[in-house]
Automatic annotation (TrEMBL):
SUPFAM superfamilies: Tryptophan synthase beta subunit-like PLP-dependent enzymes. This is Threonine synthase. It comes from uncultured Chloroflexota bacterium. GO terms for biological process: isoleucine biosynthetic process; L-serine catabolic process; L-threonine catabolic process. It comes from the Bacteria. One of its GO terms (molecular function) is threonine deaminase activity. Residues 198-211 have a biased composition (Polar residues).
Amino acid sequence: MDSRPARTGIWRHAARLPARTPQSAVTLGEGDTPLVRLHRWGARYGLRRVYAKLEFANPTGSYKDRGMAVLVQLAVEAGARHLVEDSSGNAGAAAAAYAARAGMTCTVYAPAAAPEAKLRQIRAYGAELVLVPGPRAAVADAARQAGATPGAYHVSHNDNPAFVPGNKTFAYELAEAYRNGEFQEWPSVGPVGEDGDPSSTERVTSSGEQSSAWHVVIPTGGGALFCGAWHGFLEERELGGLDSAILPRLHAAQTVACAPLAQAFAAGMTEPAIVERRPSVCGGIEIERPARGREILAAIHQSGGTATASEEVAILEERDRLALLEGIYAEPTSAAAFAALAQLAREGYVGADEIVVVAVTGSGLKDPGPDRS
């Protein structure tokens, strides 16, 4: 009998990932992040079944570790010796960490205005850090030039299709947790509802009918997690991993300071709108020209979801409310998803008894954002 422990994290799904040698995968234990129910925050908006998927529990503090682990493994298999990444912070930290784990060197191009805590983390892993002034697109352009040198591998999480497969594991984990129209929290805390009342976990609507609709709200800039999640859910339907082949409605959350997807959705467009970026507290989704924009909009329409842009003051309010009511300290980029959900609830897109999962993609410890004035 094989006495080795079963693999955990994203590499449990190695057969569904593109790496050729997953048995020697570059890993820090990414994936299998907690799924927790938000009774108090949900009650604030009349929602009874809101969950948070705590992606900041990944090794470097964001969901980017899922895609980066797979991408760096592919770079190793391709014989690369040096990684190049462009990032507002989280992806740069992930690239630097996994490069260190693999024994590779790394250069990260980042906006000059990126949060200092994220830049400090990148430096801590030994990566060369190049700060680029100007818009986010200038950072990506600089990295593309550097990534074209021999022996280098341009990670390019916003462009590289190989960054998406690792993010499918986000959907795999939710499909595993979704059973009989309800979620099992992880780590398991038992079927106890608000104020310890088990009856509040019943999966019936206020009218007495079962509710099968469920939603996933994701902060979306370049769309790596959004597209990975959608592909993952489609795979789960094909493999029978979702009860009754029920797919969630996917909602992309943006800031009004940079909302090419939300503007395109509102106008019925199939391509991202041309926008003029303004300074934003949500650096992680401040992508004015998303390379996956058409794919994101198609997934929104196919799933019956939406793209919603929130005012920055509302985003900071939800950041603070989430910490106060639930003890979850999210960066402003993640809080954009809660601001979007609050808006969707007010507008009737999400029913009181429908399940909602919000991706908390990054930690406030790395990017607290400004205090509210």
